[in-house]
Every structure is written in structure tokens, then in C-alpha cells.
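Project outcomes to date are best conveyed with an example. Our students and postdoctoral researchers have been running inverse folding experiments weekly, and each run begins with a structure described purely in C-alpha cells. The record below, which covers 211 residues, was selected by the lab manager from last quarter's runs and is presented without edits.
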């Protein structure tokens, strides 16, 4: 019996309660459990961090969704938050991901200063849902769980549609990379859509955090 549901905060369990009793959720659990049994030591992030984005951003506090693709597949980077990495990795380090480096450059260009480090958990605590479309990945294999489709039912149109219907026009979705088809089906209908341009995304995030 899968224990994935026990890793999800209660408020998100209630918010997506119909999904968690659906066949789609059971299929997700079965697929992940099978993958974890075979390759658990090579899956990132660590299991307890899979739903870190939901833990740090309560559903009632979501202001903006920053949509990524899948977790970093290099060792020591993934922490369950899209684009975020541990704070002890230096900005000038070769480990510092190019996607996060571009976000930092955009912050500087737009006059918001520079990140102190790559840990974006403070954004998450201010209402930015740092959500990847796939919540796990095989170590060293970018896009591996996106290709398997393990998470498509969870982080796709269902969650985004529920957020839109609950919070009407308050939710803005920004993305720095082209989203997967399941997410795009919702995003292209959203009137508060910001393109993948890093500068636009950064401006949106800062504006929403400060409101």
C-alpha cells in the first residue's frame, strides 16, 4: 500500500480530495511505487521532499504558480521546489543551475537585487507555489519521470483548474520553460498568463509577493 498520501499536507488533501480517491491517483501511486522499488536510491528528491512545494505553500496562500519541468537530476540539488537548490551551493559554483542563474540575472536587471543563494523556500513561504510538472526524476536522467507520465495527473490541468475555480483571478501562472501538454491545456485558457520570458516571470513573482 502506497504511503504517498501521508506525505501531503492536510489542507492539500482536502483541496484535492476527489482526486485522491480516483483511479488516476491509484495509478500514479502504483507507478511511483514500482519505480521506487526498482530504483529508489537513484530517485530525486528524497521521498520526504516530494511534496515540499505543498508543505511550504498552504493552498489558501497561493498567489502565483511558478511552473517548472522536473527536479534537478544532478546529485545534491533537488529539494522538492521548482528551480530551488540548497543554500550552501555558491552562486558562482559550477553546480549552480543555468535556469536559476537566469532568474537571478533577471532580478538584477529589473532592479530587485541578487539572490543571496539558490534556496527559494522564502518565496514559497510568501505564496509562490514552486511546482514542477513532474515531482521526481532518476538521478542523472533528465525528464525520466516526465517521459513515464507518472505525475501528469497530479500536477496537470486538474490542480490548476481547481485553483482557478477556487481563487478566480487571483492565481497567476508563470513558467520559465515550456510546460508539458497536460499543464498547457489549462494554461492557454488562463487570462493571467505570463510567457516564458524570464524578465516577465520575475516581475510577476515580485509583484505578487509584495501584495
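After processing, the design step wrote out the following sequence:
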Amino acid at each position: 500500500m502506497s504511503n504517498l498520501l501521508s506525505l501531503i499536507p492536510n489542507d492539500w488533501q482536502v483541496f484535492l480530495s476527489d482526486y485522491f480517491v480516483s483511479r488516476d491517483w491509484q495509478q500514479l501511486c502504483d507507478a511511483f511505487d514500482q519505480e521506487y522499488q526498482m530504483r529508489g536510491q537513484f530517485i530525486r528528491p528524497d521521498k520526504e521532499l516530494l511534496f515540499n512545494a505543498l508543505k511550504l505553500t498552504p493552498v489558501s496562500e497561493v498567489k502565483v504558480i511558478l511552473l517548472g519541468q522536473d527536479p534537478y537530476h544532478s546529485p545534491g540539488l533537488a529539494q522538492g521546489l521548482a528551480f530551488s537548490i540548497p543554500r550552501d551551493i555558491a552562486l558562482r559554483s559550477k553546480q549552480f543551475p543555468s535556469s536559476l542563474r537566469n532568474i537571478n540575472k533577471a532580478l538584477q536587471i529589473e532592479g530587485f537585487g541578487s539572490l543571496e543563494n539558490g534556496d527559494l523556500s522564502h518565496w514559497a513561504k510568501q505564496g509562490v507555489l514552486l511546482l514542477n510538472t513532474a515531482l521526481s526524476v532518476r538521478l542523472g536522467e533528465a525528464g525520466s519521470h516526465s517521459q513515464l507520465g507518472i505525475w501528469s495527473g497530479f500536477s496537470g490541468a486538474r490542480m490548476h483548474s481547481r485553483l482557478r475555480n477556487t481563487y478566480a483571478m487571483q492565481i497567476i501562472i508563470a513558467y520559465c520553460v515550456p510546460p508539458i501538454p497536460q499543464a498547457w491545456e489549462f494554461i492557454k485558457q488562463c487570462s493571467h498568463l505570463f510567457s516564458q520570458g524570464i524578465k516577465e516571470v520575475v516581475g510577476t513573482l515580485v509583484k505578487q509577493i509584495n501584495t
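The chain is about 40% helix and 10% strand. The chain has one domain: 4-209. The training component of this project remains on track.
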